Amino acid sequence: MARNPGNDDPLAPVTLAVGQEDLLLDRALQQVVAAARAADADTDVRELTPDQLQPGTLAELTSPSLFAERKVVAVRNAQDLSADTVKDVKAYLGSPAEEITLVLLHAGGAKGKGLLDAARKAGAREVACPKMTKPADRLSFVRGEFRALGRSATPEACQTLVEAIGSDLRELASAVSQLTADVEGTIDEAVVGRYYTGRAEASSFTVADRAVEGRAAEALEALRWSLATGVAPVLITSALAQGVRAIGKLSSARGGRPADLARELGMPPWKIDRVRQQMRGWTPDGVAVALRAVAEADAGVKGGGDDPEYALEKAVVTIAQAARARRG
Prior knowledge:
Layout: E1 14-18, H1 22-39, E2 44-48, H2 57-61, E3 71-75, H3 83-94, E4 100-106, H4 113-121, E5 125-128, H5 135-148, H6 155-165, H7 169-182, H8 189-195, H9 199-212, H10 216-228, H11 233-251, H12 258-265, H13 269-278, H14 284-304, H15 308-323
Parallel strand pairs: 1-4, 1-5, 2-3, 3-4
Helix pairs in contact: 5-6, 5-7, 6-8, 7-13, 9-10, 9-11, 9-15, 10-15, 11-13, 11-14, 11-15, 12-13, 14-15
């Protein structure tokens, strides 16, 4: 594969997505999948973790097919691949298969650097997905999200949104989607203020989102920060309840476009897309377990228990475990 530093074709034989920002890594993969399915609607997409990509697995996945089908093979956390599997991938980089796009999602850094260097040397298309640790970077991200959706937002509106939501890019992207879906014309500071009245409400939904996504450690961190900054426990149980109920409602709904489901379920279309992303790993039993956990936490924070903080922590952990039931 010839080296081509300027290659920005999503259908390049190999795409290397490098960084630790989950949203950007997901988008890099989604861009490749969308391009592949635009070329062939029947494209087969395989997402693999390091434990699933054993020596020999890549050769099987990329072997010629009688039907010459297009395929996208994505490897998450490529920095964690075993040494033997890395040898397989390096060998593949030298002679990639036709009609197959390999996507390596790599955290960057020292771990797995040999694979990173080999992919770059082979001329892989590279997409940067760095963590946005600076407020200025997040502000630029929000402005870019509005531009991508073809909408105008004042500088003050963008700043207010970043201050209200915080550092989570998924939350920021969802907020931009909500505002552009619900508001006509230029989005200003007053509009953002009406939707996001402060960190208290925003942080309670951050706790809920991380929990229903199965990210227990991040949910607990957000919970402790919320409680430390004075967020009322009842706001957090309410957000948890809304998050779990949304999963349950959408999982039992008939398939269809976001707009149709929005009318059926009484949710805005932007939320349908967001909940769909959060549904991975959930089962009907998991939803039932999570709803019981929310009910117990609600009783605990309203006087039914001696330690409201413990009741919330227990609920968050239970919900996060329920969210990963199908993956476990």
